[in-house]
Amino acid sequence: MKSAVTICLVPEAKQGPFVFHEGLEGGCLAAAELGFDGVEVFPESAEAFPTEAVDRLLAGCSLSLAAVGTGSGWIKHKLHLCHADPAVRQRARDFIAKLIDVAGERGSPVIVGSMQGTRAGNVSRDMALDWLAESLALLGNRACRHGQVILYEPLNRYETNLFNQQAAAAAFCDVRGLDHVRLLCDLFHMNIEEAHMSQALVAVGSRIGHVHWADSNRCAVGLGHTDTRPVIAALRSIGYEGFLSAEVFP
After folding, report:
1. Cα(29)–Cα(49) distance, rounded to whole angstroms?
2. What phi and psi, each to the nearest 5 degrees, are found at residue 102?
3. Rounded to an integer, what distance in angstroms lies between the CA atom of residue 226 and that of residue 4?
4. Is domain 2-246 in CATH 1.20.120.50, yes or no?
5. Over the stretch 202-238, which tens digit does the pLDDT of each residue have?
6. pTM over 0.90, yes/no
């Protein structure tokens, strides 16, 4: 398994659970000095993604681009994939698609977390899930052209009413034939929603594409009450070799 740490480039997310907020260069230099294998970058948009600086810093610091976040589409523009307005859904897909290209050119997947949205008003659950499946299929196919996948993140019940548990999300992906979608298993959300985190991880096995490594209070592991020993054992038992990425409060 590999280690990564988060760098946020979105001023509006200053209070969010990201380790570094003071610029890409400082974050990459600190990540390298601390011994991380990669960085997970949260940009404002594809157009604002500092491609030259990212390429230079990753090479100079011997870091990988672990993943690219898309949540700025929700934070800044209130775009999501389950909006009742089809024009908004299309804008959300376009926002993510552009980031897929930027990330894919650097050998990285993108994350669909907050931009999955939530069903509201007269939108039924079946309708919302149809829209979600349609978007994830289209975006997954685009990611596949770069040799990548989409990282879909089940969130806790206070952030979405779509999928909160890993098994349900994995079953949804299986039934809908979402072959280019993998799960982002976030320990903070799992601590709220899963009765047994280690069992939940083993149950979804090969669907896991990324792990957010956070304690129960969204601080660094060791500052809350999560026992990560069975989590590590579970990940090893399924042969997980991806990133453990610290999406935590600094």
Report:
1. 18
2. -60, -45
3. 19
4. no
5. 999 999 999 999 999 999 999 999 999 999 999 999 9
6. yes
